[in-house]
Structure to design on (473 residues):
């Protein structure tokens, strides 16, 4: 292949979405990935399309992204298991119900459809939930997909549009023009690729890629552990995504280690039990204490889970940005773009991120304003 | 012919995944679910590696097994939950 127009670094959900939308605009795309497609954070998650994470900008991004997923579901050749599941939140104690009520008011203002439920109403919809709850809420707009099949579907479609997918190829450097102003080439373990545009979609490794061109991207790995159970019937939980109160709190950056019960069922029938957040560097080992606590918290809400079996536990690294907003941005280096830092909503925001980056590169009006998401908010003050 | 019994993945599906670009056991797993079931690939991993070796012209010994994670055998969630004591939820 002759030189591509754009090199996308990273084969997770963000890189795959960027590659697809760029290829659709007839740009010549090369995607480079140090492992295989969907081999890090994207494969380590629950595949939840989470449409109620404040602030308002996140909700706008998530809503737009969900719409794009619906289009992709028709466009792409592989059935990536997209479902409109909705989600539910459990308020454990009376004060959790009060907090939830306030959150719902904020969410409604941001345009989220949500409904407060009494304990009685919640139990009626979810007969297996413990009687010892204070109530809850439902969020009909949430959804779910299979991240592995989604990324594969996107890369396969991008390939059809001419994209060059280079796996097991690690970026080792980025060559800039003599005036350090623009991109000349990307150096990899499998050779040099001349290009004018680079998209840094390297997830928790985005900081390393940023350093190659002198741009500060202060992302920190935030580990999440998950438990997967054997395949079980679909009547253990009726709504496929049920999250206990405490989850929104666990997202906050000041929480060094947090666990919140988060029970989800995939289309194939396995339950994915989460969730946890810890700052543990780049260590991807499962933390047995955290796994145990997750099991305990999930059983606390659904006692019926106690008898089910877990077949696998794993951990992955979310790219946490200090202000919990993603980076979807051009940069002071001409041609260098950043699409990263989505923390727990990379799957949710993948398509809108790919589309916005494509609009920035092709100088089209972005679907949503991206000023707040600029990488320059982290520029080191001189 | 079924290769992964837990997830009922056929030889044909695995060969197709290789034709579509999978070069490792993990990539085949993500595409087909081979090895995602109750036994976590303990029965089919060798077979999948063999098929990969044959179709990609690699030596069997060069094809690495997929990733293994805890637990070694399926265990009840109640057992897992009891590993940990006396810690509150928002520790």
């Amino acid at each position: 292949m002759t030189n591509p127009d754009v090199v996308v670094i990273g084969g997770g959900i963000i890189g795959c979405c960027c590659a697809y939308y760029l290829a659709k605009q007839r740009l010549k795309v090369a995607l480079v990935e140090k492992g295989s497609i969907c081999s890090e954070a994207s494969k380590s998650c629950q595949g939840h399309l989470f449409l109620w994470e404040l602030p308002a900008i996140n909700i706008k991004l998530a809503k737009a992204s969900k719409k794009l997923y619906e289009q992709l579901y028709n466009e792409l050749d592989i059935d990536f298991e997209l479902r409109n599941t909705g989600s539910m939140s459990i308020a454990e104690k009376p004060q959790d119900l009060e907090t939830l009520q306030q959150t719902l008011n904020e969410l409604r203002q941001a345009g989220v459809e949500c409904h407060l439920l009494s304990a009685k109403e919640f139990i009626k919809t979810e007969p297996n939930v413990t009687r010892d709850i204070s109530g809850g809420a439902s969020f009909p707009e949430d959804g779910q997909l299979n991240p592995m099949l989604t990324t594969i579907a996107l890369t396969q479609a991008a390939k059809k549009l001419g994209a060059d997918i280079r796996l097991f190829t690690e970026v080792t450097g980025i060559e800039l023009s003599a005036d350090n102003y623009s991109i000349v080439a990307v150096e990899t373990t499998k050779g040099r690729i001349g290009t004018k545009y680079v998209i840094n979609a390297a997830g928790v490794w985005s900081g390393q890629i940023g350093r190659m061109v002198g741009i500060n991207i202060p992302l920190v790995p935030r580990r999440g552990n998950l438990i997967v159970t054997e395949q079980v019937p679909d009547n253990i939980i009726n709504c496929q995504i049920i999250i206990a109160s405490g989850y929104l709190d666990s997202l906050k950056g000041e929480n060094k280690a947090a666990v919140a019960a988060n029970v989800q069922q995939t289309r194939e029938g396995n339950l994915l039990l989460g969730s946890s957040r810890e700052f543990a560097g780049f260590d991807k080992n499962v933390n047995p204490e955290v796994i145990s606590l997750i099991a305990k918290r999930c059983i606390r809400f659904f006692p019926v889970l106690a008898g089910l079996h877990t077949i696998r536990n794993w951990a992955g690294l979310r790219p946490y940005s200090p202000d919990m907003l993603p980076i979807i941005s051009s940069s002071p280096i001409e041609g260098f773009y950043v699409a990263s830092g989505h923390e727990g909503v990379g799957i949710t925001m993948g398509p809108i991120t790919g589309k916005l980056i494509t609009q920035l590169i092709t100088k089209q009006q972005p679907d949503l304003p991206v000023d707040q998401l600029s990488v320059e908010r982290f520029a080191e003050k001189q | 012919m079924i290769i992964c019994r837990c997830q009922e993945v056929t030889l044909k599906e695995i060969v197709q995944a290789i034709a579509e670009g999978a070069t490792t056991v993990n990539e085949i797993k993500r595409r087909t679910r081979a090895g995602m079931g109750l036994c976590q690939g303990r029965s089919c991993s060798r077979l999948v590696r063999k098929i990969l070796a044959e179709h990609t012209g690699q030596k069997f010994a060069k094809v690495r097994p997929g990733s293994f994670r805890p637990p070694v055998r399926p265990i009840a969630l109640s057992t897992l939950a009891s590993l940990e004591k006396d810690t509150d939820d928002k520790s």
Q: What stands out?
A: The mean pLDDT of chain B is 91. The helical segments of chain B are 11-19, 25-32, 45-56, 77-81.
